C-alpha cells in the first residue's frame, strides 16, 4: 500500500562511456528517470546511441526544450532490444536553468506526477542527473536534502485517504496509483549517503501518512480515547514507551486548565506520553507537545457553523507529534525524544466552562476564561508545566492555535515564536531543508499587556490585535523553565476546498530538525 524505496549502486552512473551507459540500460525497470539541461544534452550521446537515436529524434522534434519540469517519455523499441537495453522507458525531465531546492522540488513533483498518470509500477531515479552543476549542490547535505525531499514528494502524491481508510465509503474508491517502487540509482562514492537519506525519507513518509490519517479521520472516530489507543498500538510495534493518563490522574496532577476545556464533553480527556530513549540514559530529551483538540466547537463561545467540520483538524498538532515519534522510532534515532499530547473535545454543555470562569493551572497561575474558544492554550499550558519534570534540552509545542495566524501568514509558513535564537535558527533551517517553512513572529513584553485580567493572574485572550502573538505570549508564561519554541500551524496543517485534507505538516520540519540536531 505504501511505496517502497530502495537503492541501486553502480560503479559509474554518468553516461560518459558506452560501458557506463550500457550498465545503466542493462538494468530492468519500468522507467529510468533522468534530469537534463538542454545545454548538456550532448553528454547523453552514449545513451542516445544505445537508444537508437531516440534522444536525438526527440530533440530535433523540439520535444527537449529543457524547461523546468517538462517531461518527455521515450518508449522501448526494437533497436533498444538489439543493444541489450532492458529498460522499458526513459523519462527525460527538464531541469530549467535554476537549481535551488525549491526548483528541484518543482521538477521532482512534475516527474512523479507524470509517472502517477501512467501504468508504471517501478522507477529508477538517476540521482546524479538531478544534483546541480554548482559545487554547493553536490555537497553531502544538498544530496541528503534532495533525497529526503524526493521521498516526501513521492509520499504526498501517493497518499489517498480513501484507499488507506476504505471503511467510510460503501463503494470502493478508485484504485491508487500503480507505482510501488522507487529505486535510487547512484554511484559507489555516494552510495552510503544516498542509502541513509532514502531511509530517512521513507520513515518521514510513514510518519506523515500517520499524521494525515489521524487528521482526516472523522471526529466521531478520532476521539481522545482513539488517540490513546493509537499510541498504545504504536508502542507494541516499536521502541516507543507509552503512558496514558486518564481523567483521575489528570485531576490529581492539578491540571485545572486542561480539565476546564474537557469538562463540557461526554468523552473523557487523555494525556498521552510517548518516549523514545535512543540516546544515553543521562542525556536530556527534546520534548514535542501537540494540541489534541479532537473537535473544537468553541464551547459556550460557540463557533459559527460555516466550515465547522474542519475543526476536526484541531488535533493536527497532536497528529504531527504522533507522526514524528513514529518516524523517530522507525529510524531508531540515537537521541532521547519525548512526545506529549493533551487531548480532549471542546464542547458546549450544561457542564461546560463559562466565559468568566476562573481556573487554576497546574503551574498555580490562575486564568480568567473570557472566551471558551481560546481552548488550545488552556490545554497546552498544563502540558508545558508537566514536561518540566523531563528537564528537557528543548521543548517545541505544535498547535492549530489561532485563526489570526492564517490572516498573518496564510497557508505558506507556519508561525514560529521563540526567544531562543539558536532554536529559531535550527527550526528555520529545518523548515528550509524540507520546504516546510516557518516565519518568526514576536513575543515582546509589550504584547503581554493585552493578557491582563481584573480578576485572575491573566485572561485567556488578548483581543483581536495580534491574536497569534498574544496566544504565544500566554504559552510563554508556562515555558520559563526550559528552552522553548511554539509553532502555530493553523494555516499549514490542512487544506480546505476541493482538495480538503491534512498536509502532514510540520512533520518534515520536526524530523529534519531532530535528525540534524
Ligand atoms: N482551533 C482554533 C484556531 C483555528 C481556527 C485554527 C480556524 C484554524 C482555523 C482555536 O481554538 C480558536 O478557536 N482560536 C480562536 C481564538 C480567539 C477566541 C482568541 C480564534 O482564532 O478565533
Ligand atoms: Mn477554539
Ligand atoms: Zn482550537
From TrEMBL:
<comment type="similarity">
    <text>Belongs to the peptidase M17 family.</text>
</comment>
<keyword id="KW-0479">Metal-binding</keyword>
<feature type="active site">
    <location>
        <position position="377"/>
    </location>
</feature>
<dbReference type="GO" id="GO:0006508">
    <property type="term" value="P:proteolysis"/>
</dbReference>
<keyword id="KW-0031">Aminopeptidase</keyword>
<dbReference type="InterPro" id="IPR000819">
    <property type="entry name" value="Peptidase_M17_C"/>
</dbReference>
<feature type="binding site">
    <location>
        <position position="375"/>
    </location>
    <ligand>
        <name>Mn(2+) 2</name>
    </ligand>
</feature>
<dbReference type="GO" id="GO:0030145">
    <property type="term" value="F:manganese ion binding"/>
</dbReference>
<dbReference type="InterPro" id="IPR008283">
    <property type="entry name" value="Peptidase_M17_N"/>
</dbReference>
<dbReference type="GO" id="GO:0070006">
    <property type="term" value="F:metalloaminopeptidase activity"/>
</dbReference>
<keyword id="KW-0645">Protease</keyword>
<feature type="binding site">
    <location>
        <position position="375"/>
    </location>
    <ligand>
        <name>Mn(2+) 1</name>
    </ligand>
</feature>
<feature type="binding site">
    <location>
        <position position="296"/>
    </location>
    <ligand>
        <name>Mn(2+) 2</name>
    </ligand>
</feature>
<keyword id="KW-0963">Cytoplasm</keyword>
<feature type="binding site">
    <location>
        <position position="373"/>
    </location>
    <ligand>
        <name>Mn(2+) 1</name>
    </ligand>
</feature>
<dbReference type="InterPro" id="IPR023042">
    <property type="entry name" value="Peptidase_M17_leu_NH2_pept"/>
</dbReference>
<keyword id="KW-0464">Manganese</keyword>
<dbReference type="InterPro" id="IPR011356">
    <property type="entry name" value="Leucine_aapep/pepB"/>
</dbReference>
<dbReference type="Pfam" id="PF02789">
    <property type="entry name" value="Peptidase_M17_N"/>
</dbReference>
<keyword id="KW-0378">Hydrolase</keyword>
<feature type="binding site">
    <location>
        <position position="314"/>
    </location>
    <ligand>
        <name>Mn(2+) 2</name>
    </ligand>
</feature>
<dbReference type="InterPro" id="IPR043472">
    <property type="entry name" value="Macro_dom-like"/>
</dbReference>
<feature type="domain" description="Cytosol aminopeptidase">
    <location>
        <begin position="371"/>
        <end position="378"/>
    </location>
</feature>
<dbReference type="GO" id="GO:0005737">
    <property type="term" value="C:cytoplasm"/>
</dbReference>
<dbReference type="Pfam" id="PF00883">
    <property type="entry name" value="Peptidase_M17"/>
</dbReference>
<comment type="function">
    <text>Presumably involved in the processing and regular turnover of intracellular proteins. Catalyzes the removal of unsubstituted N-terminal amino acids from various peptides.</text>
</comment>
<feature type="binding site">
    <location>
        <position position="291"/>
    </location>
    <ligand>
        <name>Mn(2+) 2</name>
    </ligand>
</feature>
<feature type="active site">
    <location>
        <position position="303"/>
    </location>
</feature>
<protein>
    <recommendedName>
        <fullName>Probable cytosol aminopeptidase</fullName>
        <ecNumber>3.4.11.1</ecNumber>
        <ecNumber>3.4.11.10</ecNumber>
    </recommendedName>
</protein>
<feature type="binding site">
    <location>
        <position position="296"/>
    </location>
    <ligand>
        <name>Mn(2+) 1</name>
    </ligand>
</feature>
Amino acid at each position: 500500500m505504501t511505496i517502497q524505496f530502495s537503492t541501486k549502486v553502480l560503479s559509474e552512473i554518468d553516461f560518459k562511456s558506452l560501458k557506463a551507459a550500457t550498465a545503466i540500460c542493462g538494468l530492468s525497470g519500468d522507467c529510468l528517470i533522468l534530469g537534463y539541461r538542454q545545454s548538456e544534452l550532448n553528454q547523453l550521446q552514449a545513451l542516445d546511441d544505445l537508444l537508437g537515436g531516440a534522444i536525438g529524434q526527440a530533440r530535433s522534434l523540439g520535444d527537449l526544450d529543457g524547461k523546468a519540469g517538462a517531461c518527455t517519455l521515450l518508449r522501448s523499441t526494437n533497436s533498444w532490444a538489439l543493444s541489450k537495453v532492458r529498460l522499458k522507458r526513459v523519462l527525460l525531465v527538464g531541469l530549467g536553468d535554476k537549481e535551488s531546492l525549491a526548483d528541484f522540488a518543482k521538477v521532482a513533483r512534475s516527474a512523479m506526477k507524470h509517472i502517477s498518470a501512467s501504468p508504471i509500477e517501478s522507477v529508477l531515479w538517476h540521482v546524479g542527473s538531478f544534483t546541480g552543476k554548482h559545487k554547493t549542490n553536490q555537497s553531502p547535505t544538498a544530496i541528503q536534502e534532495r533525497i529526503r525531499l524526493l521521498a516526501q514528494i513521492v509520499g504526498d502524491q501517493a497518499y489517498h485517504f480513501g484507499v488507506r481508510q476504505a471503511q467510510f465509503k460503501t463503494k470502493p474508491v478508485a484504485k491508487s496509483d500503480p507505482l510501488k517502487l522507487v529505486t535510487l540509482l547512484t554511484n559507489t562514492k555516494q552510495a552510503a549517503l544516498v542509502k541513509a537519506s532514502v531511509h530517512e525519507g521513507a520513515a518521514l513518509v510513514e510518519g506523515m501518512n500517520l499524521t494525515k490519517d489521524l487528521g482526516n479521520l472523522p471526529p466521531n472516530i478520532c476521539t481522545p480515547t482513539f488517540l490513546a489507543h493509537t499510541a498504545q498500538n504504536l508502542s507494541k510495534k516499536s521502541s516507543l514507551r507509552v503512558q496514558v493518563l486518564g481523567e483521575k490522574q489528570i485531576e490529581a496532577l492539578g491540571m485545572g486548565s486542561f480539565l476546564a476545556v474537557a469538562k463540557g464533553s461526554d468523552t473523557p480527556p487523555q494525556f498521552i506520553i510517548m518516549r523514545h530513549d535512543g540516546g544515553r540514559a543521562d542525556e536530556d530529551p527534546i520534548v514535542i507537545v501537540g494540541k489534541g483538540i479532537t473537535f473544537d466547537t468553541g464551547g459556550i463561545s460557540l463557533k459559527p457553523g460555516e466550515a465547522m467540520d474542519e475543526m476536526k483538524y484541531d488535533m493536527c498538532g497532536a497528529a504531527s507529534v504522533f507522526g514524528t515519534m513514529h518516524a523517530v522510532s522507525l529510524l531508531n534515532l540515537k537521541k532521547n525524544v519525548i512526545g506529549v499530547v493533551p487531548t480532549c473535545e471542546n464542547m458546549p454543555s450544561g457542564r461546560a466552562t463559562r466565559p468568566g470562569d476562573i481556573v487554576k493551572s497546574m503551574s498555580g497561575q490562575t486564568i480568567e476564561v473570557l472566551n471558551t474558544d481560546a481552548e488550545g492554550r488552556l490545554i497546552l499550558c498544563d502540558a508545558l508545566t508537566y514536561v518540566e519534570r523531563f528537564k528537557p534540552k528543548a521543548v517545541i509545542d505544535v498547535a492549530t492555535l489561532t485563526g489570526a495566524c492564517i490572516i498573518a501568514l496564510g497557508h505558506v509558513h507556519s508561525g514560529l515564536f521563540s526567544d531562543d535564537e539558536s532554536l529559531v535558527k535550527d527550526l528555520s533551517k529545518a523548515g528550509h531543508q524540507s520546504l516546510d517553512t516557518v516565519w518568526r513572529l514576536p513575543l515582546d513584553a509589550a504584547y503581554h499587556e493585552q493578557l491582563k485580567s481584573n480578576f485572575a493572574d491573566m485572561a485567556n485572550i488578548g483581543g483581536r490585535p495580534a491574536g497569534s502573538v498574544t496566544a504565544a505570549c500566554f504559552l510563554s508564561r508556562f515555558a520559563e523553565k526550559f528552552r522553548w519554541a511554539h509553532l502555530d500551524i493553523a494555516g499549514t496543517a490542512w487544506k480546505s476546498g476541493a482538495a480538503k485534507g491534512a498536509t502532514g505538516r510540520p512533520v518534515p520540519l520536526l524530523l529534519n530538525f531532530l535528525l540534524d540536531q
